[in-house]
Specification:
Layout: H1 10-31, H2 33-62, E1 76-79, H3 86-89, E2 119-126, E3 133-137, E4 146-149
Antiparallel strand pairs: 1-2, 2-3, 3-4
Length: about 150
Amino acid sequence: MDHKHKGFTLIELLVVIGILAVLLTIVLIAINPARQFSQSNNTKRASDVNAILNAVDQFAADNRGTLPAGITAVVQNISDTGANICDDVVDDYMAALPVDPLTNNGAAVTDCAVVGGYDTNYTIVRSAANNRITVAAPAAELGQVISVTR
């Protein structure tokens, strides 16, 4: 009797699984999800830094050039214990104070009097020479420097 078997042999299945594993590895290396997440975080940081600086500029424009009280010529974290600009800019110039994506799960500060305080992990400084304001994201990833001066 001649039996015709239909299907794949174990060797054929193992070869196909091996080829798929190699292709998957190549795709993962090409995409590099960790790098993609880092780039995404840096994009958010750049947007946040610009938004904070825009709010400070708008505050100064509305107050005849006076800056929020917490901004000094010393680099400080934007926090309740550093450059506390939250009360000056939140609600009037921005809906919430942005926070670094890796700080407090990236949850923006909407309540400036939050129990336990707040820390954005962004810095702000006023130049003593020309009163220019610089907002920076010191936790930027991939060696990128994120800083805006106006």
